[in-house]
Write a structure and sequence with these properties.
Distance between the termini of chain A: 21 Å
Structural class of chain A: alpha+beta
Strand order of the largest sheet of chain A: 6-8-7-12-13-11-9-10
Largest sheet of chain A: 8 strands, mixed
Strand content of chain A: 5-15%
Number of strands of chain A: 13
Helix content of chain B: 40-55%
Strand content of chain B: under 5%
Oligomer: heterodimer
Number of helices of chain A: 15
Radius of gyration of chain A: 20 Å
Number of helices of chain B: 2
Order of helices and strands of chain A: HHEHEHEEEHEHEEHHEHEHHHEHHEEH
Chain lengths: 469, 54
């Protein structure tokens, strides 16, 4: 365990505050000190609420002194992607259009974290309306990667990835519609959990695609993700798609061994056209998992390009439908890349859209059949490490979609199937950029991928590397 | 198509849209037009439930 409070994991700091080895004030002040140093370089925060955070920390400390605890995150300072409605707070969604939007209610996921005792540090940067995988934002500027400032963070949870990596927050909520948690986790060297579609309520979270949107955490460790998932998962009267499937003890799952677990390695698609250093990290991760007791098997998956295409068509139509009024009234207020992508959705016929929805069931059934002999799959999150900000600033040219496609090639199929996936730091390139792998589980079986991720993190220390200023 | 959607775009934008979204149509072409008559979108939730219950 680190002695610097800012470098502790979420589980460590929550335990330290609960046992009064550390005050919430000290934890909050430590993060604010790092934020002051890093924010000018990273642009990870949309809003920093220093005074309010310290006041809330002092209140939390006073409650603890009286023997009162609100829950497992009592006094833990957190910041989240700026798309989770928080009553009375401005929630920009990374956009100009919602620059002054004040939420009148609080999102279910955020409320559950507040109910567990967490306090608000501020809000985190993101891609405009969560519709971009690079980390660029035409209105608020790009977020910079803490491991290489001229590189992107990935998106759309760009601020979440950068802030967790630089230890400016102990964890952050992100959202994943086509890869928006896993790509920043991969590029920034943090752990990110894309939850099963329906596992976590989306009530009060900005919508992008109602069929694909998922809420999940980015944090230092699989254990931290497990802790947060246990708090935010479960049914919600405000979101009819939030499942009643049992919520497992995810933290307990992170203590389990890999013995007896079978992990599949796709023999196609996810191993094609990988950058050398990503391919090496995949091989090394597989070797570590094997040495920890997992059985490794090759698995031949159905055509993932079809899944990716279906995901793209589905996402394009649903996003455009959400934005249609503003596309008519305020097209000039969108950044060029987001406007281009929203315009793409206008060109997709309703029949094609419905076909993408109708095919999801058979596509998931085919995936289940192909993976019936394994408990989870392992694959790279993306075929390459983080590109530079300059080379991925694709604006509204016709090549933009191709760049976006390559970045999200390995993540979109999983969104279409609605499956959970845990991105874990799995290595570094020669130039010091992080590389991540995704562990893909069965529907509503986040526990197994958290078991695998935590076991890997007991054997390897990539998740503990802290970027230098 | 964009006119039908109520948001007409210039010819150059229409061309760019076609270039951008074309590969997705191509990727889905093998599925489009082949689905069984009585297949509903809700079959996805059934497949999810079945998998979770296994």
């Amino acid at each position: 365990m680190s002695t610097d409070p800012a470098l502790m994991s979420l589980a460590e700091v929550a335990s330290a505050i609960a046992s009064k080895r550390l005050s919430s004030h000290e934890a909050t002040r430590g993060l604010l000190h790092r934020i002051a140093q890093w924010q000018p370089r990273l642009n990870a925060f949309m809003e920093i609420e220093s005074e309010a955070a310290l006041k809330a920390a002092d209140e939390a400390d006073a409650e603890l002194a009286k023997g009162e605890s609100r829950g497992p995150l009592h006094g833990v300072p957190l910041a989240h992607k700026d798309m989770y409605y928080d009553a009375g707070k401005v929630v920009t969604c990374g956009s100009l259009i919602r620059r002054d939007f004040v939420a009148t209610s609080t999102s279910t996921a955020l409320q559950r974290l507040k109910d567990a005792g967490s306090i608000r540090l501020g809000s985190l940067q993101m891609a405009e309306f969560a519709y971009g995988p690079t980390g660029h934002n035409a209105h608020y500027g790009p977020v910079h990667n803490p491991f290489g400032l001229d590189h992107v963070t990935g998106g759309s949870s760009s601020g979440s990835g950068a802030a967790v990596a630089a230890r400016l927050t102990y964890a952050a909520l992100g959202s994943d519609t086509g890869g928006s948690i896993r790509v920043p986790a991969h590029f920034c060297g943090v752990t990110g959990l894309k939850t099963t579609y329906g596992r976590v309520s989306r009530a009060g979270a900005m919508p992008l695609s109602q069929s694909l949107d998922t809420v999940g955490p980015l944090a230092q460790t699989a254990e931290d993700c497990a802790l947060l998932l246990g708090l935010i998962a479960g049914p919600d009267p405000e979101d009819a798609t939030a499942s009643h499937a049992p919520v497992a003890n995810y933290v307990a799952a992170t203590k389990a061994s890999l013995k007896g677990l079978k992990i599949g390695v796709p023999s196609n698609f996810y191993v094609d056209d990988l950058d050398k250093e990503v391919a090496r990290a995949l091989d090394d991760t597989i070797a570590t998992l094997k040495s920890e007791g997992a059985e490794i098997m090759q698995v031949e998956l159905p055509d993932q390009r079809q899944l990716s295409a279906a995901c793209q068509l589905l996402l394009a139509v649903e996003a455009t439908a959400f934005h249609k009024r503003w596309l008519i009234e305020r097209p000039q207020d969108y950044g060029p890349q987001v406007l281009m992508r929203l315009q793409n959705g206008l060109a997709i016929p309703g029949v094609t859209y419905l076909e993408t929805l109708r095919w999801r069931g058979p596509a998931l059934a085919a995936h289940v059949a192909a993976t019936s002999k394994v408990d989870a799959l392992i694959a790279p999150v993306a075929p390459m490490p983080a590109p530079t900000i300059a080379e991925s600033d694709v604006g509204n040219n016709s090549g933009a979609e191709a760049v976006i496609q390559r970045l999200t090639r390995f993540t979109r199929p999983i969104n279409y199937l609605g499956l959970p996936a845990l991105a874990i730091p799995s290595g570094f390139t020669r130039t010091g950029l992080p590389v991540g792998m995704q562990l893909i589980g069965r529907s509503f079986d986040e526990a197994t991928i958290l078991t695998i991720g935590a076991a890997f993190q007991r054997a390897a220390d990539f998740h503990q590397k802290v970027p230098a200023l | 198509m964009t006119e039908v959607a109520g948001i007409p775009v210039d010819a150059d934008v229409a061309e760019r849209i076609a270039t951008s979204i074309g590969p997705a149509f191509d990727g889905f072409a093998a599925i489009s037009g082949t689905l069984p008559f009585d297949l509903e979108p809700a079959s996805f939730l059934l497949a999810q439930t079945l998998e979770a219950g296994e």
